[in-house]
Prior knowledge:
Elements: E1 2-7, E2 14-21, E3 24-31, E4 35-41, E5 47-56, E6 59-69, E7 72-77, H1 79-86, E8 99-105, E9 111-117, E10 130-136, E11 141-146, H2 148-155, H3 161-164, H4 169-172
Antiparallel strand pairs: 1-2, 2-3, 4-5, 5-6, 6-7, 8-9, 9-10, 10-11
Amino acid sequence: MLMANWIEDGGDGGVQLTLKRHGAELWSRKITPGVGIEADWAPDSRAFFVTTSDGGRNGFYELTVYFLNGDAVSEVELTPAIETAFGHPVKCQLEEPPNVAGVKWTANSKELVAVAEIVGHSNCDSDSTFHAYQVSLPEGRIIRSYNQIEAKRLFGGDLGWEIKNAPDRCIRRPRSCWQYFNHDSAR
């Protein structure tokens, strides 16, 4: 059983994730500050992913997968591989990493779908748009990518409200989502 408890310790607070089997604690990890934390078990219960922001509600979100092997728990950070695949697809006043989040498991604990989203504020063109990736585990290898429109069609029921509402006009007409300060010709 995975338990999550909010911690108020006078410091940075956070969320304590704890795995228990038959009442005995197997593993525990404090996630700070734990903003917007989401977790999802793989269908075969051999892994779960956690998405959380180390900043505020707007981001920056990161994705970690935890694997259970008997009484041992190992982790795979997926954020770096997805950030590399996503790159910097649009112009930003200041480059920043995307929000990275888990969406759904697709093959027990062997594959999942994740997204990388341009953080939803006015620093970058096409803010709040995203790209999705199917990731093979535990190696964290990206085996397929999906543009925003295709991802919404295939995974729409599994997308959170922010991703589901990403502006498609920015994909169809990128210039309509330019920030004036990123383009001399837009002034």
